[in-house]
Amino acid sequence: MGSQEDLDLVRRCAAGDPAAWDQFLARTRSAIHRGASVALRKFRAVSDEELDNVLQQVYVELLREDGKTLRTFRGTSDLEGWVSIIAMRSALRLIRRRAPEAPLPELLPAASTPAPGEGAERSEFLSRLDGALRQLAPEERRLLQLAFFEERSYREIAADLGMPLNSVSPTLIRAKEKLRKLLE
Predict the structure, then answer these.
(1) What is the pLDDT of residue 184?
(2) Cys staple from 146: which of 15, 121, 151, 152, with CB 3.0 to 4.6 Å?
């Protein structure tokens, strides 16, 4: 299907056409599973139950507020790719909202002082990390700070840095790779 046919299908779904919705479900189910699997793999949380939760969450998201998200599809991209991105974001939101797992019971009593060399290793690593971060461009440093220290969403990062939303992920990947190479 071309983008105009995709746009027509989405418009029919938004208008409440049951046949269009059946067609939409059939076309997008595997794309949603792919997108959710990619995101869930990052957290080693891929299970049938998690995938089903994401699938349901995506459809809820698309239909919420009279199809507000569904109506954002403009037909300028592939329908399956579009829902795959929504699935990735939904999976990440579900993982973040999930209650933290109960901590493992303490098997050994906590040491009152660090093991020999442990404090020095940590101090050395932090020194290397600081030096590597200082070698990055200020924009790269700020991007890493927002993503990892402040745990901001991509949307918030894009707004803060004045960059397109779809540029945040690839720019972040490049900055992390540059930092990793500097730490080697």
Answers:
(1) 82
(2) 152
pLDDT at 19: 93
CATH among 3.40.50.1260, 1.20.1270.60, 1.10.1740.10, 1.10.101.10 for 3-97? 1.10.1740.10
Q: Which of these ranges, 31-45, 56-70, 98-112, has the smallest mean pLDDT?
A: 98-112
pTM of the model: 0.51
Backbone angles phi, psi at 133, to 5 degrees: -60, -35
**Domain over 118-183 is classified CATH 2.40.50.100:** no
